[in-house]
Amino acid sequence: MGKPIKIRAKLKGDVAEVKVLMPHDMESGFRRNPETNELVPAHYITDVVAEINGEVVLTAYWGSAVSKNPYVAFSISGAASGDTIKMHWADNKGDTSEIETTLK
Amino acid sequence: MKFDRRLLLGRALAIGASIALPGILFAARPDKAFAATEAENVIAELFGETPVASDRVSMKIPEIAENGAVVPVTISTDLEDVESVSVVVVNNPTPLAASFEFAPRTVPKISVRIKMGETSVVQGVVKAGGKLYSVEKEVKVTIGGCGG
Questions:
Q1: With contacts defined as CB-CB under 8 Å, which chain A residues touch B72?
Q2: What class, spelled out in words, does domain B2-143 have in CATH?
């Protein structure tokens, strides 16, 4: 659903630097529709998991205050060319998305 | 609701997500902490103790955020055995913005972009070696980013 996650993973020595952009409206539930004046229901990513070769290395729990189209950057040590990095997210409505990339 | 989310996660993600790492701090989303409306209650719900201000935790965040809807923040530390990093925007309606759990091989540095409703102190709380450390900075916000 929606636009795919964009991921960029770069190997510097044995450290994989990972930058991820996750298209998502990240509605906080505090915003009002300017036309109807009704509150736009909360709809935001609540859980994010990063894995390298199937090993979970980062788990993120987010509230409604993470910006729209979330960007996150982190690094994993002990990485090598050919390693697979996978990102998944789930939001408060049960929507999910994931992407995988291979380190060059 | 917590159970439902775990069920959904279990279906959507690799099963190992919440049981893969021994000693991981949260193991499940700290929903009560996310619902807390005061920063002290966020910390109490997350950790049950108060962090100690430490110059070994760094926070890079603008002094003035023109657009409160997108405030980039990077928290890093040279402390060892980092278990988690949490971002708290004291004056937001629900101050806990994000919590990150780290595996031993994950470099203890994280960048994310957050929404700030108004000028506020932003706290970075690190749990390392079973202890809590923090850094905080005040960010002036020109146009609030929570309600549009």
A1: 71
A2: mainly beta
> Domain A6-102: which CATH class?
mainly beta
DSSP B35-69: H-SSHHHHHHHHTSSPPEE-TTEEEE--SEEEETT
Tokens 């000693």, residue located: B23
* Interface probe with B: pick from A19, A33, A55, A56, most Cβ of B within 10 Å: A56
> Which candidate, B27, B24, B124, B139, places its Cα nearest to that of B79?
B124
Tokens 């390298």 found at? A52
Complex-level ipTM: 0.95
C-alpha–C-alpha distance, residues B78 and B56, integer Å: 6
Query: How far is B143 from chain A, CA to nearest CA, in Å?
Result: 14
Task: Kindly report the average pLDDT of chain A as a whole number.
Answer: 95
List pLDDT tens digits, range B61-92. Answer: 999 998 999 999 999 999 999 999 999 999 99
pLDDT class for A2, splitting at 50, 70, 90? low
Of the pLDDT bands very low, low, confident and very high (cuts 50, 70, 90), residue B23 is very low
Q: Cα(B54)–Cα(B7) distance, rounded to whole angstroms?
A: 38
| Residue B112 and residue B71 in contact, taking contact as beta carbons nearer than 8 Å | no
Domain ranges for chain B, please list them.
Answer: 2-143
